[in-house]
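Input record (one chain):
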Amino acid sequence: MAAKDQTEIALRIVIEQPVPGVRHSLQAKDDTPLDPKASAGGEALAFDLKIRVAPGPKFFGEQIRREGPERRFIYIRIGQSAGDGMSPWSRRMKIDVHDLPADLLDRAMRGEGVLEITVNGTGKDGTP
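The corresponding structure, as predicted from the sequence alone:
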């Protein structure tokens, strides 16, 4: 799809209640950690990035990954995957963007603020 048909929007992914001391990061285009950070005491972590949206909606950007014909998501890397070789965990979390509500996407495409996605960073078993 031509770049002229794509609108850049601001996206923020907030990881609430991450396991303290466990590193999280975005996944870069070359599959390496991008913007790694850890929460010292369980405070929320935020990742700010830009993605492009086209009619459909279709999603583009260096952090956008595809699965099947429709699913589009962003990886959050955790522990060893986020560059912490000493972590007992090596995980990735998929943050879906293909099913974002149309009204929120429309507002973001008009430049009416940052589209924020919030996820819990700790599982029922207490691990990331």
